[in-house]
Specification:
The structure holds 2 protein chains of 2 kinds. Helix content of chain A is 29%, strand content 25%. By secondary structure, chain A is α/β, with parallel strands linked by helices. Chain A is globular and about 50 Å long. Chain B contains 22 helices and 20 strands. Chain B is elongated and about 100 Å long. The chains are: A alpha/beta, B alpha+beta. The A-B interface holds A 42, 46, 49, 51-52, 71-72, 75-80, 82, 84, 86-88, 90-95, 99, 102-104, 106-108, 130-132, 146, 158, 163 and B 396-399, 414-415, 418-419, 422-423, 426, 685-686, 689-697, 699, 777-778, 780-785. Bound molecules: adenosine-5'-diphosphate and magnesium ion (MG).
């Protein structure tokens, strides 16, 4: 992506959420996007995921310019290439764990079986439970299973541990790390928690809508070794 | 400050509030329209009756000298009495070939008429002693475009005469101008004429005599007592039995119609008000659900339960007040329109339409009470929610596998379909209420429009299957059977069957009813009375068959002896065994074999008239000859009678169908739209999540609108059942002596109702779809549930 900028206009007030971001993501790498609250992380991720469009600059995904894509093409992109994990899980309350995953596998091109995806995040035994019957961490892992079940090219996670305590958060990160390792999915994890950065190949620091620093971890930590 | 929040909240849910307002408007408007019309018709009628001195008691007789009038006036209990000459005549209207008959009534040459005084609309009053001048009933004049100055021919007592119209008039006696025995007024073929007493008396050999008495009762007098004395006085002069106002034909028709209007006013607004209360309930409880945290904060800051309760009550009241205001305005308009429709039917000189404050207050009171009752629990819950609990989000709903899935069909369903089923199953009560609401809209349409089917059926039975004659000819007096040969001799008459019709008061115990007994040829083909299963009534050789409604009025059963007081000739009183009761839709009559009736009357083969089949090519010729035949009192063309019936009803039916469609549509829209908006507010997060996961707009629309669609579809059969029930209640409620409404609902009525529901649902679906397409994907991801 090049020169990416995002301007929110609310009546008189203008908010520059992104002010010219240049960034390349490589296949299979695990990137942590680090920055204080309000620095533009979510905005960047949403644009990357085709949920939002940039005010200026361009996002190119495999020769395709997402900034100029129509609504239908963006839907197509999300449908087949991107997996999302959000802070508040956003599961469908009326569907069981397995069915929540099936929601995605039903429409994907080369999905895994929902059971396999759930096993991958350690929830092989909870297939028939509804979200209301699961803890936050379990729900988040269902969300991860849902995100990876379509075998996405990119996995985008916006504060996946934000609503969780550290022990549960680590379980979630383990699930993400395992998916990245075993499926070689390009993974972007957003956090404002610097401790989490250890598990990344690359850490991108964002502040005030600009990339302030990019660091490469020579030795990746295992999520199990983290604590915060 | 809270009031500002109130206004913003209302503004945010303006669509929903508007939908509820519309339903309330519909309810209040129907109520005001129906009650207002009722009131104004009643007021109009009362004022017209009072100003034009409508009589209380009526009597016809053969002939009495004027001196008898003094004796009548001496009967205690009589206020004013007037004697008149009245007769039935045939008219000959240029350019109108069909038979036309008229009731001609005398007006005094000297002084003003004392009772039943005509209201002169156009032209002037009769000049004294002018035997060629007449006043013509306004409806008839309009139907034929006749104005003062025009002339027409009349056969008066067998003599052809040219009459000059000097004015058009209306009378309390003929608000509904229908030929005796007809089921609806016929302005083209039946006229009312007024002529000077001297002129009419001369024509009928009634100089210094009269054959018609009308009178008012003095205060506190009982009609029965006066009638008893009047009957015994007129007995000598061939009195045909006096009767009170409630048996007077125009008044009776009016009362029956008013009764029907009253029944509608009882039913329809109630449905609307129930639906509004339900909608308010749903919306307010949802609003309270969404605003839990706000309530908590208000309370944490020290607002009392009462304060919070008042706040939400105000929200309900704003909606209700808007609805009531709109309803009153719309209802007044509609009432005036409906009044106009009725005015074409009822001949009043004016319509007094005013909305009594009482009606408006009642409408407002009932609606407000229902709305508050409907929202009481939600408001109460909001007001008493402990702040700490309110801070927490509402407990998550528990989903279960739906019944459909548990039956094992689940495998076949994709996730979206499962979501639809489970969402419906999650709040079964609300889904059911919603189904009930939409069903009600369907039902209301059916109930409001089925009368057309019922009328079609009634007319089909009566005028197509039962009666097959082209023409019914009535003689001026009972005649020898030979008279029919004269008719059969006319060119074009292919077949004739005779009948005897005897006016009579039927009595059993202390109950009695004035009607007529039809004597028909057994085995005849032109007029075969049918029972309700459409089988021809088999007439026994002896005895009388009554229709069941008449049987019920008299409290008589087969095997009982019926007393028949004949109101004709020398008025014999006879006993006849009732041999059967048959169910019939129109009229209240007794049927006998014509020979049995002749025996009962102790007369040889006398007949009152004949049913004719006429070759269409010679129809006009036959009509013309009939006018000229002195013995013929008049003729009725069956096809024209049917057509006229529809002409007179058409406008009213159209009006009701139109109103019902709008109202049914409003309810369906109100319910579906509100439910959709609430569901959307509950589920936008879930739907946006699906969009994020790559579902297309069409796919999430399916999930969301599928639920609405399913509910709409489920509600239609239920609505049809409910419509049937309400219709059958209405049918029973408006059945009267004139006709019993059969419970017949046509496919088109069902289809129209279903179509209106579906269209309204689609319409709300489209509006919501628009919102679905513009879901803010990013926003929903930021917020917690
Ligand atoms: N829909 C919006 N309208 C206006 N401003 C917004 C909107 N979304 C985000 N912003 C602003 O953009 C900036 C970046 O937000 P965001 O990307 O959510 O930050 P982060 O995720 O890093 O906390 C913030 O200042 C925020 O207030
Ligand atoms: Mg963020």
């Amino acid at each position: 992506m090049k020169g990416l900028a995002k301007l929110y206009r609310m009546g008189e007030v203008e908010v520059h959420a992104l002010r010219g971001v240049d960034l390349d993501l490589f296949a299979g790498e695990l990137v942590v996007l680090l920055g204080p609250s309000g620095s533009g992380k979510s905005t960047l991720l949403n644009i990357l995921g085709g949920l939002d469009t940039a005010s200026a600059g361009e996002v190119v995904y495999r020769e395709k310019d997402l900034t100029r894509a129509a609504e239908r093409e963006l839907t197509e992109y999300r449908r087949h290439h991107v997996g999302f994990v959000f802070q508040f899980y956003n599961l469908i309350p009326s569907l069981t764990a397995q069915e929540n995953v099936a929601v995605v596998t039903d429409i994907a091109k080369r999905p895994m079986k929902p059971e396999d995806a759930l096993s991958l995040v350690g929830l092989g035994e909870r297939l028939t439970h509804f979200p209301a019957q699961m803890s936050g961490g379990e729900q988040q892992r269902v969300a991860i299973a849902r995100a990876i079940a379509k075998n996405p090219d990119v996995l985008l996670c916006d504060e996946p541990t934000g609503a969780l305590d550290s022990t549960t958060g680590i379980k979630v990160l383990e699930a993400l790390e395992r998916a990245n390792r075993e499926l070689a999915t390009t993974t972007v994890i957003i956090t404002h928690n610097a401790d989490i950065a250890g598990i990344a190949d690359r850490v991108i620091h964002l502040s005030d809508g600009r990339i302030s620093e990019v660091s490469v971890n020579d030795v990746k930590k295992r999520p199990g070794d983290l604590h915060w | 400050m809270l009031d500002r929040k109130l206004l913003r909240d209302l503004w945010k849910m303006k669509g929903q509030a508007l939908a509820i307002v519309l339903v309330i408007v519909s309810g209040v408007a129907t109520y005001v329209m129906l009650i207002g019309t009722m009131d104004s018709l009643n007021m109009t009628r009362d004022r017209f009756y009072r100003d034009h001195r409508f009589a209380d008691v009526f009597a016809q007789l053969k002939r009495a000298p004027d001196s008898v009038k003094a004796q009548i006036a001496e009967i205690p209990g009589i206020g004013t009495a007037e004697t008149r000459v009245a007769a039935d005549v045939k008219l000959d209207i240029k350019g109108f070939p069909e038979p036309v008959t008229a009731r001609i009534v005398s007006l005094p040459d000297v002084g003003q008429p004392l009772l039943n005084t005509p209201y002169i609309r156009k032209g002037r009053m009769l000049e004294p002693y002018r035997s060629d001048e007449v006043l013509v009933s306004e409806a008839f004049a309009e139907a034929h475009r006749l104005s003062p100055g025009d002339t027409f021919g009349a056969v008066i007592n067998g003599r052809w005469k040219t009459l000059v119209i000097v004015g058009t008039a209306l009378s309390p006696e003929f608000v509904l101008q229908s030929r005796p025995g007809a089921i609806s007024p016929d302005y083209k073929r039946y006229a009312i004429l007024w002529m000077g007493r001297d002129g009419l008396g001369t024509a009928y050999n009634m100089k210094g005599a009269f054959n018609d008495v009308i009178l008012t009762l003095s205060r506190g007098a009982r009609a029965e007592d006066v009638i008893l004395r009047l009957d015994s006085l007129l007995d000598r002069y061939g009195g045909l039995g006096a009767y009170a106002r409630k048996e007077q034909i125009s008044h009776r028709f009016l009362s029956e119609e008013f009764k029907q209007l009253q029944r509608s006013a009882d039913i329809f607004p109630a449905i609307f008000i129930a639906v509004s209360a339900f909608l308010l309930n749903v919306v307010v409880s949802r609003t309270v659900g969404i605003q839990r945290d706000q309530i908590a904060i208000l309370k944490a800051f020290g607002y009392s339960n009462l304060g919070v309760g008042v706040h939400y009550t105000k929200m309900v009241l704003v909606i209700v007040v808007a609805g009531i205001a709109g309803g009153l305005a719309a209802g007044t308009r509609l009432g005036e329109a409906l009044g106009g429709v009725y005015m074409a039917f009822y001949r009043f000189p004016y319509l007094v339409f005013e909305l009594r404050p009482g009606v408006a207050l009642t409408a407002a009171g009932i609606t407000t009470a229902a709305a508050l009752a409907g929202t009481f629990f939600s408001v109460h819950r909001a007001a008493t929610l402990p702040p700490a609990e309110a801070m927490r989000p509402e407990p998550p709903a528990l989903y279960r596998r739906s019944i459909v899935e548990r039956l094992g069909i689940g495998r076949l369903l994709a996730q979206p379909t499962r979501m639809i089923l489970r969402n419906i199953g999650k709040r079964p009560a609300r889904s059911l209420l919603m189904i009930a609401g939409v069903a009600l809209s369907c039902a209301i349409m059916i109930a409001a429009t089925f009368s057309k089917d019922a009328v079609d059926f009634m007319v089909d039975v009566q005028f197509t299957r039962s009666q097959k004659e082209d023409l019914t000819v009535t003689f001026t007096d009972p005649t020898s059977k030979k008279a029919v040969y004269e008719l059969m001799g006319l060119r074009g008459v292919t077949h004739a069957e005779v009948f005897r019709s005897v006016p009579a008061r039927l009595r059993f115990g202390h109950r009695s009813y004035r009607t007529s007994i039809q004597g028909i040829e057994p085995g005849g083909s032109l007029n075969t009375p049918l029972d309700s299963s459409l089988r021809p009534i088999s007439l026994p050789e002896d005895g009388i068959v009554l229709n069941d409604y008449l049987g019920a009025i008299l409290g008589i059963r087969p095997g009982d002896m019926l007393t028949v007081e004949v109101l004709e000739g020398n008025r014999p009183v006879r006993q006849v065994p009732v041999v059967g009761l048959v169910k019939q839709y129109i009229g209240l009559q007794g049927y006998m074999d014509i020979h049995a009736l002749n025996r009962l009357m102790k007369e040889g083969g006398a007949i009152s008239g004949a049913y004719l089949s006429v070759d269409p090519r010679y129809r006009a010729e036959v009509y013309k000859t009939l006018v000229e035949m002195p013995r013929v009192a008049g003729a009725v063309v069956r096809k024209e009678e049917i057509r006229n019936f529809y002409d007179t009803q058409a406008e009213a039916l159209l009006f009701f169908t139109f109103i019902a469609t709008i109202l049914g549509g409003t309810i369906a829209f109100g319910v579906v739209y509100n439910s959709a908006r609430i569901a959307l507010s509950e589920r936008s997060r879930e739907l946006a999540s699906l969009r994020v996961l790559g579902y297309t707009r069409a796919e999430i629309s399916y999930i969301f609108l599928g639920e609405l669609g399913l509910i709409t579809i489920a509600s239609i059969p239920l609505g049809m059942l409910m419509g049937r029930e309400i219709a059958s209640y209405i049918a029973r409620a408006i059945s009267s002596e004139l006709f019993r409404v059969p419970m017949v609902i046509g496919g088109a009525t069902y289809s129209l109702a279903a179509a209106v529901v579906v269209v309204s649902a689609c319409f709300s679906g489209l509006i919501v779809r628009h919102r679905l397409d513009h879901l803010d994907l990013v926003a929903v991801l930021k917020a917690r549930e």
